[in-house]
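> forwarded from #structure-qc
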């Protein structure tokens, strides 16, 4: 039942994305676009009203007395946020901060429905403690319970606390009281205005699709109007190719004071999904490879494989955050073999959702990446220095 609901949800999501980016034509698609446009106008009013209510203090934010860094984006998905969160957490930890990453755990396993219903009916605050993905010593949850990104961050950052809860004021308080944290990183937190205090707002902009199709949800992929970029203290241009003059000019018009950092997702090595064996980047050079992914922008990932010298003979794409079944992996192996692929490559974010399989006709590796700063390194160090009060 759960699998069929997930499959139906993903098919609707794929259809809507095709409609939003006008890859579907015809009467039905046009009608859906008209409906989405009307809804986006309502959404715009809701966003501006909510912001106004926070500004005039009708809706109250909370201060926990520690440093808060919100890392997020104006658009939905695909900016490469997780490696940036990891870079900040690692740098702050190296500077002596006690860091906790607070995530809402997108598509993680929610609390029991009965408990959530009772809390809503009785207007009670959820007293359930946040889920502890990592206590800074051990990995305590799997990817299904934690969510893809929190699990991946906890796997890569062994000495950083990672908590999951929709209420990040609650999880922030928990991080301070239980783990003595003095720095809270809000993963996907630019729109989370409930937690303020000493706060830095870091916004990521994808060079390839800076503001999506320039329309708000649900007609487009913008969560807020581009003018709201003015709140950012630092802006990362991700997936940069160095040709960003026009984008920088647009950013400067929206926010003339923010530091701008350009970066790329730099591949480090390949790691076998099942055995953990690591290989250098020369692994795929001049070899036939297949790609397998369930991410927001698979084209960027596939291009990175060809850039490393791989000959991409087959690619299988799923909806973002898709949880793979054993049969789907086996089908991908069979089709890759038919195209004479020598190995299958996936992303680390996808690898955490892989099921165990008995048949391994082809080796399956994920590519481990990190953020590499191309320009604005001084702005990054200044940003870290401000956080650390140095």
């Amino acid at each position: 039942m759960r699998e069929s609901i997930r499959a139906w949800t993903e098919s609707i999501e794929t259809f809507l994305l095709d409609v939003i980016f006008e890859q579907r034509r015809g009467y039905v698609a046009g009608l859906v676009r008209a409906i989405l446009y009307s809804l986006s106008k309502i959404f715009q009013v809701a966003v501006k009203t909510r912001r106004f209510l926070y500004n005039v203090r009708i809706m109250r934010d909370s201060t926990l007395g520690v440093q808060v860094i919100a890392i997020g984006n104006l658009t939905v998905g695909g900016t490469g946020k997780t490696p940036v969160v990891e870079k900040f957490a690692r740098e702050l930890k190296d500077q002596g901060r006690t860091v906790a990453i607070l995530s809402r755990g997108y598509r993680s396993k929610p609390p029991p429905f009965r408990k959530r219903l009772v809390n809503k009916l009785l207007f009670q605050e959820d007293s359930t403690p946040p889920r502890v993905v990592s206590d800074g010593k051990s990995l305590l949850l799997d990817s299904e319970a934690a969510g893809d990104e929190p699990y991946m961050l906890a796997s890569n950052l062994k000495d950083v606390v990672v908590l999951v809860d929709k209420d990040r004021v609650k999880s922030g308080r928990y991080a301070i009281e239980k783990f003595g944290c003095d720095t809270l990183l809000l993963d996907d937190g630019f729109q989370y205005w409930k937690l303020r205090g000493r706060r830095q707002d870091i916004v990521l902009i994808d060079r390839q699709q800076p503001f999506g199709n320039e329309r708000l949800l649900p007609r487009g992929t913008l969560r807020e109007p581009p003018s709201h970029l003015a709140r950012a203290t630092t802006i990362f241009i991700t997936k940069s190719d160095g040709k960003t003059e026009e984008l920088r000019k647009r950013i400067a018009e929206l926010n003339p004071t923010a530091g701008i950092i350009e970066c790329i997702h730099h591949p480090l090595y390949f790691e076998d999904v099942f055995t953990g064996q690591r290989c250098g980047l020369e692994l795929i050079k001049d070899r036939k490879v297949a790609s397998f992914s369930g991410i927001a922008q698979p084209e960027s990932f596939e291009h990175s494989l060809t850039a490393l010298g791989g000959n991409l003979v087959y690619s299988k794409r799923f909806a973002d955050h898709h949880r793979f079944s054993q049969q789907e992996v086996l089908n991908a192996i069979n089709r890759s073999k038919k195209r004479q692929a020598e190995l299958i490559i996936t992303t680390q974010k996808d690898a955490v959702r892989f099921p165990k399989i008995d048949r391994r006709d082809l080796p399956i590796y994920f590519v481990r990446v990190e953020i590499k700063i191309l320009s604005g390194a001084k702005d990054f160090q200044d940003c870290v220095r401000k956080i650390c009060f140095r």
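QC bot note: The longest helix spans residues 27-55. The chain has a mean pLDDT of 91.
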